[in-house]
Write a structure and sequence with these properties.
The complex is a heterodimer. By secondary structure, chain A is of the alpha/beta class. Chain A has one domain: 2-Layer Sandwich (Transcription Regulator spoIIAA), CATH 3.30.750.24. Helices cover 37% and strands 25% of the residues of chain A. Chain A is built from three helices and seven strands, in the order βββαββαβαβ. In chain A, the strands form two sheets. Chain A has a five-stranded mixed β-sheet with strand order 1-2-4-6-7. In chain A, strands 3-5 form a two-stranded parallel ribbon. In chain A, helix 1 packs parallel to helix 2. Chain A starts with a strand and ends with a strand. A six-stranded antiparallel β-sheet of chain B has the order 8-7-6-11-10-9. A five-stranded antiparallel β-sheet of chain B has the order 1-2-3-5-4, with helices on one face. The longest helix of chain B has 47 residues. Classes of the chains: A alpha/beta, B alpha+beta. Chains A and B meet through helix 2 and helix 3 of A and helix 1, helix 2 and helix 3 of B.
Chain lengths: 103, 595
Amino acid sequence: MKIQDIGDVLTVSNIKELAAGNSDSFREEVRAAMPSRVKAVEIDLSDTDFVDSCGLGALISVYKFVNNRSGSVPVRLVNPAPSIQQIFELTRLHKIFEIVKTE
Amino acid sequence: MSSLATHAPVCVTFRTSLPCELDAVSAARVEIGTFLREQEVHQEEISACELALAEACNNAIQNATPEGRKEPVEIVAICTRSKVELHVIDHTAGFDWPEPTGAPDWQEEHGRGLFFIQSFMDRASYFRGRNENSMVMRKMRASRPNFASPETDATLRIRLTETQQALTEMARELCFRSETLAAICRCSADLGRSNDLKGFAERLMNDLLHIAAAEWFVVRIIQPAEMLTPFVRSIDAPYPDIPLASDKVISIEAESARSRHDMDFGPVRPLASNDPLARHFPNASGLVHPIQMDDALLGTLSIGRSALDEPFSMQQREVIRTFADFLAIQLLNAQLREEQISTRLLSHEVEIARGIQQSLLPRELPELPGFGLSAFCQSARQVGGDFYDVLQLSKDSVLLMIADVMGKGVPAAMFAALLRSLIRANLDSIVRPGRVLTRINHLLFEDLSTVNMFITAQLAVVDLARRELVLANAGHCPLLLAGGEGNQVIEVTTEGMPLGVLREAKYEEVSLSIPMEARLLLYTDGVTECRNAEGELFGEERLRTWLEGTAVNKTSESLKDELIAKLASFEASPTLTDDRTFLIAAEAPSAEVVV
C-alpha cells in the first residue's frame, strides 16, 4: 500500500485487497497519514480485486474521520472493479463516496 | 460411455480449511475462486461466491469461542452444472439467522456481512450443531459451460438410459442397505432386551431370508468336540450333528467349515445325494458360508432356494456375509458373557466361603492356667473346610477341636459353620467327646450324605485339674502328645469313621493322663501332606521327630513359629495347595515350678 500527500490531497494506492485481514491496519495508516488540512482523499482501487464488509467499514471510517474534522471533504474511489462497484451500489454508499473512473 | 467423456463432471467437490485468523481468509477465498474458475463458473458468480465466503469466514473467526479458536474453519465447495454450494463450518456459539434486511445505515462501519451474503447468494442457511455450526450458501449458475459438441438425440437417449440404470441400481443398493441395517438393528435391540441368543439368531436369519430372497437356512455352530451342531434352522425335521474332522461324512457344510471358504451348490454343482443338506433340500441351490470372527471358526450358515432360481447376486451374497459376520459377533459376545458370569460367580462364591471360614475361627483363644495355646490356619487358593475351635469348659479345662470338611467352596464352609454350632450346642457339663461326636454324626448324616460330603474331626478335652486328656476321633489324623520322662511322642487316637459316612456310627473315646512338660499337637493332613521339591511328603514321621526335638521350655507361640518355618523350608512351591491347620498346647515353662 502506498500513501502520498500531494498538496492537500491524500492519495492511497497499491491496495491489493481491502478485507478483514488488513482493514484495521488500512484504517490506522490512512488516519495517521492524514494532513491537518486536507481537501480530498483519493483511494485508488485500480489494483484492488476484493473488498469485503470490513474493508467497506474501513472506508466509511476514513470518510467519517476526515469529514468530522474538516467539514465537507470528498472521498473518491478511483477505478473500482465492477464487482466492487456493485458492493457500493448495493449499500448505497456510491452516493456518499465519489466513484471516479480514469481509464 | 465415451460420449460422456467430453462433458464436465456432474458434481465436483473441493475442501479446504484455514486457521482461525482473519489474515488467513484471503488465501482461502482465492483458493475457492481458483477452484470455481476451473469449473468454468462465470466471473460474476465467482465474485459473489468469494464475497459471501469471505463474510462467512470473517463471521466464523470473529465469533469463535476461545476453545473454537484452536479449531480450523472448514470450507467445502460443491460445484454442479446448475449451482455452487459453499459450506463454512465454524466453532462459534452460533447465532440466529436474521430476517432479510435492507442495507444498514451508511454510517455504520460494521454489520454488512450477512447482508452481503443474503444479497449476493440465492440461498443461505445456518445450521447450529453442538460443537460446530455450518453456514450453507448457494449460488445458482445462470449460464452453463458450453459443451465441446452439441448432443445428438441418440447420445442423449443413451445417457438417459445409463442414468436410469444407475438410478435403479442405486435405489436397489440403498434399499438393500437400509433393509439390512434395519433388520440388524431390530434384532440387536431384541437381543439386548431378552438375552435369548437362539431367538435372536432365528429372527436375524428369517430377516435374511426375506432380504436375500431365499427360502431356507441352517445355522450350525461348532461344539468343543469338533462337531457341527444345528443351532437354528428353518426346518423342523431332525438334523444330525456332523463331525468336522471325519472324512467319511460327505457334507458341504463340513467342507466349508474346514476350508473356510464359501461353497456354492446348485444345478452346476449339485449336493451329494448323501449330504445331510440334500436330504431336506433336494434340488436346491444356494451357498454355505463359514461363520468366523478373526481366526476363530464359530459355525456355518447354509442358505438356499429352489434350484430353478438364479444363483444369489453379488449384493445378496454381501448381505449374507454381513449377517453372518453380525451373528458371529453376537455368538462371541454371548460366549464371553457366559465366561464372565461364571468367573464372577466363582470368585463371588470363593469370597463368601472365605468370609464364612474366617468368621468361624476364634478371634482369641481362652486362657488355660500353666498352658499356652496357639493356632495356625492357612487357606489354600480355593477355600477348603479346615477349621479349629477352642472352648473354655471350666477354669481348668478346655475343649480343643480340629476338623476338615471334605469339599470346597460355600457348601464346605456351611458345614463347618454347622459343625461348630452343633458342638457348641451339645457341650454337656461333663464333656464326653465320643458322645458328642456320635450325636453330631447322627444329626449331620442326612445332610452330609445327600451332598456326598463328610467331615473328619477330632475333639480333645484338656482337664488340667485332673491332668487328664480325653479324646475322640472321627477319621481325623491322630493327636501327637510329647512330654514326660524321655520326652516320648505318642499318637493319641481312636478308631472312628468320618462324620457323615455311617448313620449309626458310635464314637469311642480314650483318656490318658497329661505328662509333665506336655506338648499337644492337633493338625490337619495339609501339614503332613506338604511336599518338597522331590515330591516327597513331609509325613507323620518328620512331624513326630520335630515335636520330639523341640525344647521343653518353649512357649506354644514359638513352637508354632518353628513349625511354620519348618514346613516352609521343606516345601517346594511357595503356593499352598491345601489348607493347613494346626493347634498347639504347650505347658508353660514356669509350670514346672507350680507343679
